[in-house]
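Dear all,

This email documents one entry for the complex benchmark we are building for the journal club exercise. For each entry we list the sequence lines for every component of the assembly. Then comes the predicted three-dimensional structure of the complex as a token string, followed by one or two observations. Please use this as the template for your own entries, and keep the labels exactly as they appear.
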Amino acid sequence: MSTEVADTTNLSEKKDFLVRSSSLKDVRSFSREVFEKFKINEDLREELVLAIAEAAQNIVKHAYKDYPDTQDRMAVRISCTEKELEISFFDKGKPVEKSKVKHRAIDDVKPGGLGTFFIQEIMDSIKFKEGDKPWINNLVLTKKL
Amino acid sequence: MKYKVTESENVSTVFLDGEIDMDVADNVREVVFPLIDSGKEVHLNLKGVQYMDSSGISVIVESNQRAKEKNTKVELKEVSQPVEKVLAMARKFL
């Protein structure tokens, strides 16, 4: 885990993980650790952890759908100012087709669709960007504090 | 994720423990689906589940659908507070 800026008004932590479902618990551990360090409201922490884990899960499930044994890594960066939390995800998987990113009816029982719904419920904004090299995708989630 | 199964005459109870995510969802299916397929009522005790994501919710939804097809039912028991919060969010989706 690396601290990019470490003062009290602008904090940022970044860590990378192997793109695997077995990494999701490590993503959650990293997130909990950072939120504790950033002193994020305890009521909000687990909701944010869920949103982060769902976004990481979407990378594993969708961006790397055809590459379950990839050795690629994805990165998660959590940045915090007094007013806003910004969570960025970086991966080198299949480019995201924005038009296809939507939740489905629950009867479809597709976890990815419900996961996207959870992210939308928890976060204030969701933006998909092209990643700067070497990254392909860059998802940015924000939450007002 | 750990689990324990207890059996009574007409009910199988699965006590789940730990965190249920995409990585362990198939393990839960492997435990729960055969019990449903046997035709018994299945209770999922979630007292020990500290975290559940959309994959865990999907297992519950699939279990309910499977139970209907087998003319039996699945009930959630002693749902922990973290899981209840996620279920409440998922219900908005219904």
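Observations: Strands of chain A lie at 2-6, 11-18, 73-80, 84-91, 125-130, 137-144. Helices of chain A lie at 24-37, 42-63, 111-122.
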